[in-house]
């Protein structure tokens, strides 16, 4: 593979060098021709001057010689200094103007104008060298994107275990290209259109818009168009990058508007209304349709807002609140999936650890993230089963993994103080020899409020060599107190400090203070919830050593224990 990569890079290099050499030769030939033409014009002007002064070629030979010499010419070869006579021949030409013909000698134009030749050739060579470096780097980056070097499940190693983390080193501009190449998460878009004036009766609207959408969104593999009985058009765009949902929504309106102008030139942008719902795989299509209709109704009611979008997740929490369902039963019946969110080292691109995330498979709302269903699991019994389920699945997975692996688990706040949970946990670790691969995340707020009641839990985890991660850190004020906990291995910044950090100087200041204090105490600082390239670049410049979030990749499904609905 390495030889193939080298040959792929060397081949375009050879093409570039050959093209650059050919360009250099053509340029010098052209420059020489231009300078020779300049010499010819100067000689012709001398002949014109002799004619106009009515100088006799014999009687006024001294005057003519002086004029010729002033322009760098000579009447005979003996009058030219012979500094280069041993290896450069003089050139002679006859310059004519009407009845005057002058035979003059001169050095080659490239020698007379050598300073210009050197200057322009140096500029061309410098430009060629810069272009060569850019060319070479571009092909190397393309090769990296085709084969991203991201190692799965790499632990922090002995440095983290000993909490000896070196201060973050400044990163080059291209160091994170490997991470930029990791796929982002995707949404699907369902859209409904409305226009005030109907199309001509002879137009096949259905096929026309199928062609329009296919041409306008050719980069998307899966897309569909359907003409509704009401006369509107429904469009579905699948696998749209989550970070570009708004961009695709606006583009959709523009594509439809331009298509309408072909048949209705009197239409304005306000005559085209669009309602959009973005959702993920597994969402209830009936709910998606209703949300899209609501979005279209809002757009039609507005005089200036022609596009309205409602995300599917917007209704999940409210629908769960209104539902009489007991989410305890979903977990009990194993209607869930376990995912792992990778944490990337920003210097090497390696995966340092994974955070375990559980998703409930709701029968109508699709996959529900923890932030949607945990607020509706308020009983001690529910949250106990939740964390027991996650730990059991992680334990099962770790037993099947032969390589090194570090997994962090977010325990529910109630379970940190639940004696029943800790008794169960100790029993689970009796026959488990990889407890050192586990890390448990604890919110900074919970620690500050209840740290006196957590000594036994910390002691239990320390005996098992399991780590503790202080999560949701907002300030550097309390970092020094974590030195009292022997197995604290990292700090995770609060999401509110990460979101839009690229435009908020106050957030940048807070994060910088946390990083400086963390470096002083040998606590590595991680960022969570990174969603954009600008956020990542800002965090990298501030000194964050690792990050996770949907910008890098969707959570990876490494273990799923699923049974059909009964």
UniProtKB/TrEMBL annotation:
InterPro entries in UniProt: Cyclic-di-GMP_PDE-like (IPR050706), EAL_dom (IPR001633), EAL_sf (IPR035919)
Pfam families, sorted: EAL
Keywords annotated in UniProt: Membrane, Transmembrane, Transmembrane helix
Organism domain of life: Bacteria
Record bears the keyword Metal-binding: no
Coiled-coil spans in chain: none
Residues covered by the EAL domain: 320-566
NADP listed as a keyword: no
Membrane-spanning intervals of the chain: 12-31, 114-132
Protein name per UniProt: EAL domain-containing protein
Organism: Pseudoalteromonas gelatinilytica
Lineage: Bacteria, Pseudomonadati, Pseudomonadota, Gammaproteobacteria, Alteromonadales
